[in-house]
Amino acid sequence: RQWFHFRLSQVRDQALQLRFENAGQCTYVEGWRGYQVVASYDQQHWFRLPTQFDGQTMQVDIKPQRDVLWLAYFEPYPQQRHQALLGKISAETGVHIERLGSTVEGRDLDLVRIDDGHNVLPAPVWVIARQHPGESMAEWWMEGALELLTDESDPVARALRQECTLHIVPNMNPDGSARGHLRTNAVGVNLNREWASPSAERSPEVLCVRDE
To answer: For 157-177, how does the pLDDT look when each residue is reduced to its tens digit (9 = 90+)?
Structure first.
C-alpha cells in the first residue's frame, strides 16, 4: 500500500488540492517524510511537486498547465519500455537475451547475458533489480548500466566484459510491477527474503535465478 500511478483529466488552470488520506497507514510511512510526488504531462518527462505530510495525510497543491496530468510514486518503468530495451540491447555484440522461466502469474523472467565471445567463460557476475517492484528507479538504472556495458568505446566496460560473464536481470518481479505492488510478488512474497529456500509456488522468480 504505497505505489500509485494515475491520471487527472480536464484540469488545465484549475487550482487543485490532492489529499492522500490513508498515507499514514501505508507500508512505509517514514518514506513520505521529505518525499515529493512525481508528475508528468506526457509520461516521458517527469518533475517533482511540493508535497506535505503531517503523519496521516499527504497533500499536493498544483495548478496544471495542461488538460491531462499523471502522478506517480516514482517515475514508472513500463513493460513496453522493458521490451523495447531487450530488443535494442539484443543487437549489441556479445549480448544474448534468455528466458529464465515464468513468474507466479506466467510472465517471462528475462535475463541479459553478456559474454563478449569468450571461448572459456570467466567469472560469472550477477546483477539484479526490482525484487521490490515499486522501486522502479532500479530498472532505469539498469537501462543506463546496459548501455554502458555494451559501449565498445568505454574502457571500463571493455575490461569488465573481458574479465566477467555478466548475467543481468533488469526486473526480478514482473508480477509485482504489473500489479502496482511495493515490495511483493503476485502471492504477497517479499523476494529478497526467499533466497535461502525459494519454491516454485511462492517464489519461482528467485528459484529461476538461483538454479541458473
So the answer is: 999 998 899 999 999 999 999
What percent of the chain is predicted at pLDDT more than 70?
Answer: 98
- Average the pLDDT over 136-154 and give the result: 95
pLDDT at 121: 65
Count CA within 13 A, CB hemisphere, residue 144. Answer: 4
8 Å CB contact between 44 and 78: no
Sole residue written with cell 523472467: 109
Instruction: For CA atoms 190, 191, 197, 201, give the dihedral sign.
Output: positive
Burial 20-33 (b: 16+ CB within 10 A, else e): beebeebeeeeebe
The x, y and z cell numbers of residue 6, run together, are 494515475
Q: Are 32 and 23 in contact (CB under 8 A)?
A: yes
What is the distance between the alpha carbons of residues 174 and 126, in angstroms, rounded to a whole number? 18
DSSP E strands, the chain: 5-8, 16-20, 38-40, 46-48, 51-53, 58-62, 69-72, 95-102, 108-114, 123-128, 164-169
Cα 160 to chain centroid, rounded: 24
| Tally of CB atoms within 10 A around 34 | 8
Q: Taking Cα atoms as reference points, which of 182, 198, 2 lies closest to residue 101?
A: 198
Measured CA to CA, the distance from residue 114 to residue 131 in angstroms comes to 21
